[in-house]
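Running this now, will post back.
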Amino acid sequence: VSSAPREKVVRVALSALRSLAQCYAEASPSPSSDSKKEVTGATFLSEMIGCGLIKYVDQMKERQWTDPDIVDDLNVLHKLLHENFKEMSTWDVYLAEVQSGSLEWGFLHTEKFFKENAKKFEGTNGDFSVVKTLVALTASNDEEVQSIACYDIGEFVRHYPNGRVIARSLGAKDIVMRLVDHSNEELQRHALTAVSKMMVSNWAAVH
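Update: finished.
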């Protein structure tokens, strides 16, 4: 949607997104469970929000479109996305963004957010799956995503009790260390800072 130059392409993309946002289905049960799982538009709306679609839909609504179907789809998507966003907690939005792999600088990647949400990084199963995903995102092809992943890992280490041990046990230190010599200066800086946080027990005392 964000890069589609032709109205025909935009119309098809928006129609597909609208269908997902308004869908309802029952997924087949997994081998370990007999119960079917409901899949609703809210599931896809959360993923769309995580990918940053709200920003693009807001921008597209400001443009003049000749196709009435595009205008209608944009209005519906705008309404559904903003309604769903209001119902999501800050953590829900962060989780959706991390799972989408489309990290963007903003209020979710700040010291304040990590102070308030550090314990939630444990996950419902205590497996720190979000941290594992962040570690994986340091290998993204997008250097901004890599930089943000490094920042988030460093902030998790700072604010989660025993975060240094957890991060190192997940291989974060060795993986992020490889980015310290990266040609991109911003990525290099965030990688170096993250590694430093993993090595220093009291970051506030030296920073």
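The longest strand covers residues 24-27. More later if anyone needs it.
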